[in-house]
């Protein structure tokens, strides 16, 4: 009887631990997702190559490090730090790059999220044709907004691969004025229209 009780306690403990790890591992905009319909969800970063067949980035950025700056001129969003990772500690200091998506400038879907009451507050006023400027060690990239939409908080279709097309998704909670955990997500779709590549991946300029 004692052995059975001990085993039960161990099983419950392990289950609770795994649940906690899984919950903490989810990006903030997909807490405890139930299901999704994406057919080609990005499982790992797809690193595109330049015309020279060299990688844009010499290495994969470490979690929590700054990988670039984001600017949206018309909205007066200026030089927001882009942090590798999309957990609460990352989003407290900048916009978070979803680490299973492409890095800025690469030929796939780059996903960046931010808080609606912090760095992405002005996204409520974004328009089609607005430019989004991103500067990283690989170069300077201009994305142009093509559309916006609102999805359920558990919807993962925005992280589908767009290869070989370089695209950008900005994500924040919605409604913007909602008090408490928001039930939906506001998505900005943009495509790369101009790129100035650095000769080699180096530090931010």
Describe the protein in words.
With 205 residues, this protein is of the alpha+beta class. It has a single domain, classed as Sortase (Sortase, Chain: A, Beta Barrel), CATH 2.40.260.10. 14% of the residues lie in helices and 32% in strands. The protein contains two helices and eight strands; from the N terminus they run αββαββββββ. The chain has helices at residues 2-25, 88-91; strands spanning 66-72, 77-84, 95-97, 109-113, 131-136, 139-152, 167-174, 184-197. The chain has an eight-stranded mixed beta barrel with strand order 1-2-3-4-7-8-6-5. β5 (131-136) and β6 (139-152) form a beta hairpin. The chain is globular and about 45 Å long. It starts with a helix and ends in an 8-residue tail after the last strand. The model is unreliable at 2-6, 8-26, 28-53 and 201-205 (pLDDT under 50).
In short:
The protein has 205 residues and is α+β, with helices and mostly antiparallel strands. The protein contains two helices and eight strands; from the N terminus they run αββαββββββ.
CATH superfamily heading: Sortase
Supply the CATH class.
Mainly Beta
Task: Summarize the helix and strand pattern as letters.
Answer: HEEHEEEEEE
CATH architecture: Beta Barrel
Q: Which strand order do you get reading across the main beta sheet? A: 1-2-3-4-7-8-6-5
Name the poorly predicted regions. Answer: 2-6, 8-26, 28-53, 201-205
Please indicate the count of domains.
1
What share of residues is helical? 10-25%
Major sheet: size, sense and barrel closure? 8 strands, mixed, barrel
- The outline comes out as globular
Q: How many H/I helical runs? A: 2
Pfam family, one: Sortase
InterPro entries: Sortase, Sortase_D_1, Sortase_dom-sf
Active site: 115, 173
Protein name: Class D sortase
């Amino acid at each position: 009887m004692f052995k059975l009780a001990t085993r039960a306690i161990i099983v419950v403990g392990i289950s609770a631990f795994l649940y906690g790890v899984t919950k903490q591992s989810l990006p903030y905009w997909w807490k405890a997702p139930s299901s999704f319909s994406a057919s080609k969800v990005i499982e790992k970063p797809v690193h595109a190559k330049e015309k020279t067949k060299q990688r844009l980035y010499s290495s994969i950025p470490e979690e929590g490090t700054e990988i670039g700056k984001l600017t949206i001129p018309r909205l007066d969003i200026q030089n927001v730090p882009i942090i590798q990772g999309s957990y609460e500690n990352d989003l407290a200091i900048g916009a978070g790059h979803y680490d299973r998506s492409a890095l800025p400038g690469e030929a796939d879907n780059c996903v960046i999220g931010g808080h609606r009451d912090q760095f992405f507050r002005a996204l409520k006023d974004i328009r089609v044709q607005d430019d989004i400027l991103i500067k990283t060690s690989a170069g300077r990239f201009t994305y142009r907004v093509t559309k916006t939409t609102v999805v359920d908080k558990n919807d993962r279709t925005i992280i589908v691969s767009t290869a070989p097309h370089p695209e950008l998704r900005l994500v924040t909670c919605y409604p913007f004025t909602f008090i408490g955990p928001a039930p939906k997500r506001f998505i900005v779709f943009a495509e790369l229209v101009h790129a100035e590549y650095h000769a080699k991946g180096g530090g931010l300029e």
